[in-house]
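request received
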Amino acid sequence: MASVDIRDVRKSYGSVEVLHGVSVPIKNGEFVVLVGPSGCGKSTLLRMIAGLENITGGTVSIGDRVVNNIHPKERDIAMVFQNYALYPHMTVADNMAFSLKLKNTDKAIIKAQVDKAAGILGLGNLLDRYPRQLSGGQRQRVAMGRAIVRDPQVFLFDEPLSNLDAKLRVAMRAEIKELHQRLKTTTIYVTHDQIEAMTMADKIVVMHDGYIEQIGAPLDLYDNPQNQFVAGFIGSPSMNFINGTLRVEGGQPMLETASGTKMPLASAPSASAGRAIVSGVRPEHFTIADDGVDAEVIVVEPTGSETQLVAKMAGHDIVAIFRERYDFQPGQKVKLKPRPDVVHLFDKETGKRI
Amino acid sequence: MTDAALPATRDRPMREPTSWERLRSNRDWLGFWFMVPTVLLLGVFLAYPLFLGIWLSFTNTKIGRVGKFIGLENYEWLMDDKVFWLSVTNTLLYTVVASVAKFAIGLYLALLLNKHMPFKAMIRAVVLIPFIVPTVLSAIAFWWIYDSQFSIVSWLLRKAGFITTNINFLGDPWNARWSTIFANVWRGIPFVAITLLAGLQTVSPSLYEAATLDGATGWQRFRYITYPILTPIIAVVMTFSVLFTFTDFQLIWAMTRGGPVNATHLMATLSYQRAILGGNMGEGAAIATAMIPFLLAAVLVSWFGLQRRKWQAGVGND
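response:
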């Protein structure tokens, strides 16, 4: 186990810079998730840590060692690939034993290690099978087994659950998290799925276009997104954004939309009136109240545990979720009130939190 | 609900289909109908000439004279025919040496071409040239390169001071053997290289990355990843290569016609010489038929090699 320090790392392909100086400190034993939309540079960053890509600028350290110019096999890391990258001509046992075999490890030790990993992952009765004879989830587990057998300083996961169906993904998510709780190995996990990030991470790194937007604990990102991108990316269904202008009427700050609708805000942000702002409201932070804003129901989606509502409010399509069961009809007028204390305000120009 | 209601829906009784109609619409027969064109093509152009050839080998047919069935007499003669046995030895030497060389160089080239390099597409196209040039044309080119007086190789070596007299490439038995083998290798490499390259490109790059992280060196990646995964393709390519080489005719005929003193006669060229030029169709057919066991053996070796690999990769169980 070791800490990992990514400091001002840059990556260019020719004249195109895809990572613009990112820094992520990772503590020993931490589970860090790099999350962001496709093309944000998260996989590139992971591959640079693994040594599969050259580092254009900055340093990557594992433990106390700068590994920029250290060969991948000397970095003492193990990686789980999106397509598992299992050797198709080797059995499960041989796949897991491959790295030890290359090190000329004693056969008895190899067997003990493989059996131990197989025990942890429940692969005991599959050791003689070939990858093609396994289901997606089993292959995923073999890929993890191959990583565990090596007992590395750091685990790297590159979108490991993308190729699984939805139900299996949820199960494997819990399995990986449990595995981390057991082994306590430092883990860096790349995904584009914010749910995976939220459920598994000790610390989430949100990336976008080669920059880090925010680093923090899952609920910290959820409750205090530093900018509009993070606010919209974290959470499902995503946060509603309502454009408008900041007004103060009789000491009460308000958001006034283009259509003239006014929504009261909890506190006056340190900004002058007349500033163009975006108000962000999470779907679960709406209530039905007589002093709410007029909205027209478009679609109602009851899921049993909650009622999800798509409605038109002040010229915006918004999504609201209620724990109560409401019997709305399409076209019906309702009054929706955002809870002022949990409304997020962002600058229209910069997208930064106000 | 009464039973009387039922017949009303069947006022037009269904006619029993005739056997011809059944034959036309039956699913099992449908497959047969689809196969008919292929069966005809294969029968007329493959099976018929093959069996005609085998049949001829049991007769004393000469050009211009219908022969009689003479049993195994042609083969008995061949058993005592030193030239025939020389041609068998030549063919085996030619096939083994050329195939091994083609495989080694072809694989090496494929591995090189699979690397990232500038002008990749152009280099790949250039590699294909020996394969594209008509065989006879390249044979004539080699004939010229090997010419006893005007050989460019002899000229270069003489200019460089390595030799004082021209090399007798095609006039000396062993020189002629190696020269024809070299020409065959030159011609056969592109097929092996390009096909293996296609195979290499199906190997997922992440396997190499995983192996690199697992600590494999370049050689170990080849030995434990590339080679085993490539085995099925190697088996197919080398089977074809062996078949082509064993039955080679054009190169030899254009360069040496089997000479000198039958040193480069292959079974195919000898068969042609005896049957067409010599007029002894029966004997020529017997030589050609004698090639079949060797070819079958080559196919069987690769067949069983493939079967094992198939199982290893687990494909057989899908």
